[in-house]
Amino acid sequence: MRSILFAIFAVSAVAATTCTGDPKPFSPGAGDWNGWGVDSNSRYQPQPGLRAEDVPKLKVKWAVGLPGESRNAAQPVIVGGRVFVGSYASGAVYSLDASTGCVYWVYEAGGAVRTAISVVRSGNRWIAYFGDFHGTEHAIDALTGQLVWKVKVDEHPTARLSGSPTFYKGRLYVPVASGEELASMTPKYECCKFRGSLVSLDANTGRVIWKTYTIPDPAKQYKTTPDGTTLYGPAGAGIWSAPSIDEKRKRIYAATGNSYTGIDVPTSDSVVAFDLETGSLLWKNQMTPKDNWVPGCPKGPTCPEDPGADYDFGSSPVLRTVGGGKQILVATQKSGVVYGLDPDQRGKVLWETRVGQGGGLFGGIQWGAAFDGLNAYIAVGDTAPTGMPGLYALRIDTGAKLWGTPAPDGARNKPQPAAVSAMPGIAFSGSFGGRLRAYSTKTGEIVWDFDAVRDFETVNGVPGKGGSFDGGGPAISGGMVVTTNGYGFAGGLPGNVVLGFSVDGK
To answer: Are strands 166-168 and 171-178 parallel, antiparallel or unpaired?
Structure first.
């Protein structure tokens, strides 16, 4: 019923602010922020349409209120002069004008949407691809919002698509995670049976080409609790982030989450490589063995006897080329450690650098770093008293720290779990306290600091409220910086706005 009401509210909001007149030309191309991270998930925009020296002059140009939203963590994209963004509460996907915030269309997905949207040309039309929290992948016409196809890629009742789909040569690669960790807290829940997977779909039709589980064998009964509840395993190893293509080696890389049961999973908390054509699992490198964890540990009824620390991977592994043409696969973990791996030696660790303490729901590195040609810019969300929240820069070739800027004093400002976005000279990082900051990539100096914890006048008339930053980071394109804001979960500050920034708000 709530989703139906939110859908009605969303339609009403669109009617109040529908774009009028002839639509602007839609011509995706260079300079767009398309999908999770522009170029192979790097989250780096080389053609931002503004300069580093312009960033301190950024002001809100427009705000859009999402009806019923309070947990607003979707990654917006800017493609062909339009913003595409999903909603958690209503399951609506919006197409907005990037310069004004007016609404071209709204599509009702029927489930929470927080993936970034990938817009790809198919024949004579542009298709927008994204997933929802019911395990369904959608393809819709990017110009009209009309459904082309949708397919449920996993039948487990808690399956969710949190990671963005990756498009490559006519195929869509969809990562599958789950919410079974939360379901395990239900009394007498028979934890756990979900297995993470990567699914390859025909981008034109949605037909499943292959599906490879991160845990090869289905769960079996292995234990009974004192109250008689049957427990199953192995389970877990979901893929929470967008997979990354390796054209040279014809592989696709992903990073996995923790195990949910007391049965060890050799592919949990791992970087894994699949064959692009067949889906065969080629190799895996497990960074944290025995990370068997569900909420409520160590005292929950379904907790393993020796629970782990929840050090899974929530961010994409990113392949970068360094000196002499050598390539390094960089992975960032909730343990607070960054790894440089050799893709030619089955993911052998070349270097590892600790930038955070890790631990806890928002500890370590959450949703993703940004990478230019030389360096990685990494936000840390540590919440423990001895944690290391802030933004850090590392060399990609050696893992050497270049600089670190601790989060400013004050509890409201500290954890920085949201994904980082970068452009020449600048890295943007959002905090759980509701601050969006811009850092000099040369020195780590904070050159712009915006407090989003306020009310906003919105172009669609929906009351706008700002809050915490979490999940996806800003999209940068055409002189605009666009972000979602408000994350009312696990102590975060709720909010419901999409914010468009430009130089002096012009």
So the answer is: antiparallel
